[in-house]
């Protein structure tokens, strides 16, 4: 046992039958992140426990099995314990106990139930109370569908859509019930005994919030699985006075739930870039504290920075701008083309601009078209990350200062050299540019149809008309007798098409007429304008490829003003 002289901090090893006893009454504070363990983490925990129980030998021979640590704010003389870290383990173990209870005979189920529910005692004046209370927005759901007897089966039978945390409750409950159902009753009893007697948690208790947060941060720095947003939430919400803390906690969690956990974490990286305007040099939490300083005025940060940037980010991410202006469709189309890139470095720039100009659709259209142009140019040139971020940082500075982004000197605009480099990147071996070819071809296909039109197809493949390895004696070798020229033209833009299905290696070598009718047309129906062009060609020769190459690059030059 570790203990400080002032008695404000101590750590003990506790078996689970002591953890889920009258010694503790766990509460998950509202500032904590939602329950996020999925079937992967929960399944791994159960498999480990089953293996440990099976390897223990005779009763009483098992070695202690440690499940990690939890950090609490707790007065040593009172059971009430605020969980600073450990809610994922405690909540998952409660779901597991509920599943074991559900599958046990009635007399054994009552013995398991005492680890979930503290029964009322008239002599001590206590009422029925569950041993753990999740965050306020999930607490009632958890009581009804996990902690209450027979609730787990009702939860599993539900078919409705649930928020992320509650969906994780359901999926983990379903997994536990299925996995435990494969065990015999004696095996489940042995497992329950092993879990309660031989599984331990290290309980780190602090008498005040400051000490608990310090432990929380130290454990995170040593590899505990906590995200930057978990730490920021604890610190930012913790700085808000108690009368208003709950309202800001709910606002924070509403944003996190609407975006989803991963996108919410991405948002904070984008906020860092909007303020810092350059490549990260240190950990996200450190840079946010230095350059955004949310702790200085946490309420203002949430109201004036986090919330409006989250709204703008959601529009950018989902390409969901709404207005009655005719430019709306084109704005969202450009956002969709941007989302097809292999990086999200452009997102902070778009988020910052949409925040400032959300009510100005004409300005937004001009901006997103120029941002698409810049981002695709950098994409085609394969500009390195550091250079890309430096460029976007300059654009962010111009947005912040309300400078003219349409002016020739703006960092949002391409220089003459960049326009030439982009055209060069479109020429030559285009098929070999694996990350580039599909987004650019889809963008080109849209430009050949009605501007703003996008295709909603699940499978898209890039196909050669002139095949890469034509068969001996085929029409292709007669049409392209020069092997050097044939090799050069095979992978150029002018020889490529799009199909909304998987490749057919046998059909790829068909002669041109058969390939059109049996491979590209497939019932005389094709999704893509690029492929329709091919169907209208009577032959496929070097001259046709070169002519098509010039026309297609010319179309992209028109779209992106190259």
Descriptive account of the structure:
With 562 residues, the protein is α/β, with parallel strands linked by helices. It has 25 helices and eleven strands. It has helices spanning 16-19, 39-54, 87-103, 106-113, 136-147, 151-157, 164-181, 185-198, 209-221, 228-238, 242-259, 261-276, 284-291, 298-318, 328-339, 347-357, 361-381, 385-400, 416-426, 434-448, 475-479, 483-490, 512-521, 529-535, 542-559; strands at 2-3, 9-15, 25-27, 65-74, 80-85, 117-118, 129-130, 132-133, 199-206, 461-464, 496-499. Helix 16 (347-357) packs parallel to helix 18 (385-400) and helix 23 packs antiparallel against helix 24. The longest helix is centred in the middle third of the chain and has 21 residues, at 298-318.
Determine the N-to-C terminus distance. Answer: 70 Å
Largest sheet: 7 strands, mixed
> What share of residues are in beta strands?
5-15%
DSSP helix fraction: 55-70%
Trace the largest sheet across and list its strands: 1-2-9-4-5-3-8
The tally of domains stands at: 4
Q: What is the assembly state of the chains in this entry?
A: single chain
Number of strands: 11
Q: What low-confidence regions span 5 or more consecutive residues with pLDDT below 50?
A: 1-7
Would you tell me the structural class of the helices and strands?
alpha/beta
Indicate the overall shape.
globular
Mean pLDDT: 87
């Amino acid at each position: 046992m570790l203990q400080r002289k002032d008695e404000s901090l101590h750590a003990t090893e506790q078996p689970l039958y002591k953890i889920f006893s009258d010694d503790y009454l766990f509460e998950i504070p509202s500032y904590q992140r939602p329950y996020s363990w999925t079937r992967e983490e929960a399944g791994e925990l159960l498999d480990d426990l089953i293996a440990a129980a099976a390897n223990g030998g005779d009763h009483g021979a098992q070695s202690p099995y440690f499940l990690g640590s939890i950090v609490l704010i707790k007065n040593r003389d009172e059971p009430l314990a605020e969980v600073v870290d450990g809610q994922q383990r405690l909540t998952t173990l409660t779901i597991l106990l509920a599943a074991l209870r559900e599958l046990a005979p009635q007399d054994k189920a009552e013995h398991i139930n005492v680890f979930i529910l503290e029964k009322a005692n008239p002599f001590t004046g206590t009422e029925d109370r569950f041993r753990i209370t999740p965050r306020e927005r999930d607490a009632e759901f958890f009581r009804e569908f996990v902690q209450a007897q027979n609730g787990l089966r009702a939860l599993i039978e539900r078919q409705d859509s649930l928020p992320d945390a509650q969906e994780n409750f359901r999926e983990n409950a379903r997994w536990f019930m299925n996995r435990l159902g494969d065990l015999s009753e004696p095996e489940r009893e042995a497992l329950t005994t092993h879990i309660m007697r031989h599984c331990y948690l290290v309980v780190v208790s602090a008498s005040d919030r400051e000490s608990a947060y310090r432990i929380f941060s130290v454990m995170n720095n040593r590899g505990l699985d906590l995200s930057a947003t978990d730490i920021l939430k604890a610190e930012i919400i913790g700085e808000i006075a108690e009368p208003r803390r709950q309202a800001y906690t709910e606002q924070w969690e509403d944003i996190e739930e609407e975006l989803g956990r991963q996108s919410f974490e991405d948002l904070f990286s984008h906020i860092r870039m909007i303020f810092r305007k350059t490549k990260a040099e240190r950990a996200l939490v450190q840079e946010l504290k230095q350059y955004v300083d949310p702790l200085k005025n946490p309420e203002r940060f949430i109201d004036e920075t986090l919330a409006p940037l989250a709204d703008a980010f959601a529009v950018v991410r989902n390409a969901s701008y709404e207005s009655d202006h005719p430019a709306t469709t084109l704005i969202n189309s450009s956002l969709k083309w941007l989302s097809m890139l292999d990086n999200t470095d452009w997102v902070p720039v778009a988020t910052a601009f949409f925040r400032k100009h959300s009510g100005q659709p004409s300005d937004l259209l001009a901006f997103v078209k120029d941002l698409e142009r810049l981002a695709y140019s950098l994409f085609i040139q394969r500009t390195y990350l550091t250079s890309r971020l430096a460029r976007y940082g300059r654009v962010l500075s111009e947005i912040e200062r309300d400078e003219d982004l349409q002016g020739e000197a703006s960092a949002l605009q391409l220089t003459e050299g960049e326009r030439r480099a982009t055209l060069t990147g479109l020429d030559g071996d285009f098929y070999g540019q694996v990350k580039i070819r599909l987004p650019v071809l889809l963008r080109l296909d849209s430009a050949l149809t009605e501007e703003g039109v996008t295709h909603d197809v699940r499978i898209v493949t890039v196909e050669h008309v002139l095949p890469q390895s034509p068969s001996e004696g085929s029409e292709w070798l007669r049409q392209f007798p020069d092997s050097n020229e044939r090799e050069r033209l095979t992978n150029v833009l002018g020889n490529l098409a799009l199909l909304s299905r998987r490749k057919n290696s046998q059909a790829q070598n068909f002669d041109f007429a058969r390939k059109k009718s049996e491979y590209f047309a497939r019932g005389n129906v094709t999704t893509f304008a690029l492929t329709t062009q091919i169907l209208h060609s009577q032959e496929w020769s070097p001259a046709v490829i070169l002519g098509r190459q010039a026309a297609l690059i010319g179309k992209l030059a028109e779209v992106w003003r190259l």
